[in-house]
Every structure is written in C-alpha cells, then in structure tokens.
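Model the whole thing, not chain by chain.
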Amino acid sequence: MTAFYLSKPYQPPQAPQNLPLKQPWALLGGISPDRFMKQYWHKKPLLVRGAIPAFALSAKNDEVLDSPISYEEIVHFAGQEEVESRLIQSKPWHLDHGPFTNKSIPKIDRSDWTLLLQGMEAHHPAAAKILSWFRFIPDARLDDLMISIAGIGGGVGPHFDSYDVFLIQMSGRRQWCISEQKDLSLNPNLPLKILKNFKHEQEWILEPGDMLYLPPQVAHDGIALDSGCQTWSVGFRSPSFKELLQEGLWRLAESLEQLPELENKFADPQQLATANAEQLPDELIKQLKTQLDTLQLHQIDRFLPGIAAYLSEPKQQAYFDGPKNCLSPKQFLLKLAKTALLPNPQTRILSLGKQVFCNGDNVTKGQPPSVAAAWSTLSANKRLVTQQLKSIDKTSLYEAYLAGWLIFED
Ligand code: SIN
Ligand code: CO
C-alpha cells in the first residue's frame, strides 16, 4: 500500500538576536560561523546536507515539508509590478522580464523553464526570516533573497556570479554541477550570460533542506529534477572599488554644500607678472592644496559617511507607503513602549560607529541623543521597543515612520 503524505509549508524560524558565532550550526554543516568565515567564505564552496534539519526530521515522522511559498503564490508574485521577475526557457534559451500574466507562466508540469523572483525578503515573511539566519555576515554585504521555481530540466544554464551565494533547496530536487575553471568566457550569441566552455568538476543532487554555498566566480549549473523545484538563493554583493569611490566622491562633493565659507573666491593679490601665461598659476595650486588639507578630503573618515549612505540605499524598485492610520507623536510613543518598531522589509539600515544610515540618509545627524540611541538599537537588532523616548515630534525616527520606512509589528 502506498503511504499518502500531505505536505506542509515549512515555517522558518527567526534567528535569535545574539547569534552563537562560536557554536556549531546545522545550517553550516556542523561548523561555527567563525569557522565558516575563516575556511569557506569568499574562498571555496561548501555543500551542506540537511542544512535545515526540519525537512529530514519531518520526513521521519511521515510528514513532508514543502516550500513556505506555493507555485500559485509564486505565479501571483510574478504578476506584481513591485516584484522583479524573469522567466527563462532553456530549449532554446529565451529570457523575458516580468510582470507576467498567469497565462504566460508555464504550468508546473511543463519542462525546461524557470521563473526567478528577486528581493523576496520584502514580499514574504518566510524569506525575511531566512535572511535573519545570515546576520553573522555584515548587512552591508547582503543583496537579497531570490526564489527560483522550475519545471523539470529548468535552469539558467552554466554561468558564474560575482556574488557569494547560499543556494537553499526548498522544494523538489536540483542537480548542481560546479567548476572552479579559469575559462569564464561567455557564449556571445545568447540572451543570458552562459559559459562557452563549462566543464564541471563536481556534481551533487540537492534535496529539500540541503544547501550549497558558492563564492564568486565559481562556475555552476543547476538543473531542476522535479517539477516545481524551488531554490532560494541568499546573495551577497561586493561592489567594485570604482563604484564605491565614485559614489563616495559624489556624496563628499554634495556635503561641501553645507560649508558656506567655500563660497569665498580664490584671490591672488600676490600674483606676479608671468612669462608662462598658459600654465595653471602656482598660487591657485597652493591655495587649493591648503583647502584640501583643511577639509581633510583625503581622510577616510571624511569619506565613509558617503559610503555608508550609499550602501544603505534601498533597491531601485523599493516602494514605501506611509501608515494607513497614522499615529500622532504621542500615540506613537505609547505604542513604542509595548510594540516593536521594525524596518519595513525594503528598508536598509547600516551603522558607521554611532552614526546610523537608513535608506540613504544619515538619520542620526542633528538628532537628540535618545533618538540616535534608538536608531542604533534599530540598526543592530532590526527592532526597537522602548520607553526611553520622551518626545518624538520632528525627529528622524517619527519621520521615518511617517514615510513608511519603519513599521510597527502586527
Ligand atoms: C537558480 O536558482 O536556478 C539559479 C541560481 C543561481 O545559479 O545563481
Ligand atoms: Co548563479
């Protein structure tokens, strides 16, 4: 007699506030985050069987766990404007960008297609919870959680990413082939970045609850073996120095607006008659150097606030809506004494020492110390409950609530 198993959606837990960095974690194959960072992070791949033990534990109890999100829900997300989605067909290779109508997404039992949804932490609480497991890695490195769903044979082809990525198998099986090959040349005639000469060195079949960590530039190819195969990828970005320096310099230039003394004009009463009129005057060079030294523009501390602001920018498609029933400053404080204030899942918050940057703004600048302290707690814990604040009107914390950057827990 065949057993009849009813599958249940897996409900990922929120990670504890203080992560045990020195203890072994099942998620990392029985090693600690400390050891993972030293031995594997940004260095070499790691395959973890049973990274989410709940899948195997449930199977023992004749209960089948499935992804927290069903095919139908994923199709629904792919139809929304605010969800970045792509549909890839593999025979022949074809790429489309969403939003998609229900009809344009292949049925689950069709083969050779995959649908990818980016930034899912902003749209589904289970995805946000899974991200909380990875807070032993700096928030500044985090990009997003992408969900892929595929029919048998579906995949994005052999490729490499410039990301560190944790590929978590959530539903069905996927075969992963990887290679640390040097030849990363791409096939020029395809709508996707697909390697011209992929020669895999290792291969594994991942079952639900397994995970594969890949550092950047490791070539990989994941092919769905079951219909409705779901892989959840937690991706970590590393910006180029060009991007960091350009963005930092832009913001540094903008910060000069706040220095009215810079409106003073260059003056050269000491300029002598010159026989080399074509040359930039020495006097100008001398005075500019004095300005640069005074402003300390070459100092890293002058530069870092711009970098922190840049890295705290939300994703391009992020959309914030103010609260429906807006609380007055007084009501806000009463609620904050009992209910947690959380960043909207699309909000990014980063700290630079005691300065906090939220969605691209320095939210601690010019704020009372109690408000700055509240922001630091929000940045570190990604939640805040406090009775310490006495007045909130016109502060950046209340403004962030009005803008929908911060929301109260349900
Ligand atoms: C996938 O989930 O199908 C693709 C993920 C990746 O290869 O980066
Ligand atoms: Co990839």
